[in-house]
């Protein structure tokens, strides 16, 4: 939540933002498979502002009890 008059947060290269929300709270990742995730956000509260996108992250969910292969470790 943004407090009125609060300065917009700005991240510099190498910095990070931790959000307490978990991806599995938004999407059902209970099925084995390969999922790709990319997050993005506007640079300000203005919906017409520029958008900053993350790198794409690939996650592989294995069936329960299946050990990861050497490639997946």
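Q: What amino acid sequence fits the structure above?
A:
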């Amino acid at each position: 939540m943004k407090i009125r008059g609060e300065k917009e947060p700005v991240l510099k290269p190498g910095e990070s933002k931790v959000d307490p929300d978990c991806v599995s709270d938004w999407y059902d990742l209970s099925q084995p498979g390969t999922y790709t995730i990319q997050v993005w956000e506007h640079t300000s509260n203005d919906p017409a502002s520029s958008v900053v996108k993350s790198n794409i992250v690939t996650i592989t969910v294995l069936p329960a009890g299946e050990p990861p292969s050497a490639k997946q470790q």
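Q: And what stands out in the fold?
A: The beta strands are 33-37, 40-42, 51-53, 57-61.
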